[in-house]
Design brief:
Helix content is 0%, strand content 33%. It contains no helices and 5 strands. Strands 4-3-2-1-5 form a 5-stranded antiparallel beta sheet, with no helix packed on it. A hairpin with a 3-residue loop joins strand 3 and strand 4.
Length: 69
């Protein structure tokens, strides 16, 4: 799935990516939106910037995100 700026997302699971940190476990279940999908890189394994409700802006692996409507 390719994310686009403004897509609403939910952190749905722990990532298998090596960049996942233990503090990120607290993000599971939180909603937010894509602020920078790095479309110029267009790499499905790249971290993307998301703004999470009550948690600020973070760069997260894509495998932990689910697009919502």
């Amino acid at each position: 799935m390719q994310f686009q700026k403004g897509n609403k997302i939910k952190v749905c699971r722990k990532s298998e990516d090596e960049s996942w940190e233990p503090y990120m476990d607290d993000f599971i279940g939180i909603h937010g939106f894509i602020t920078d999908p790095d479309t110029s890189i267009n790499d499905p394994d790249a971290l993307i910037e998301v703004s999470l409700e009550g948690k600020g802006t973070h760069r997260l692996p894509q495998d932990c995100l689910e697009q919502i409507n």
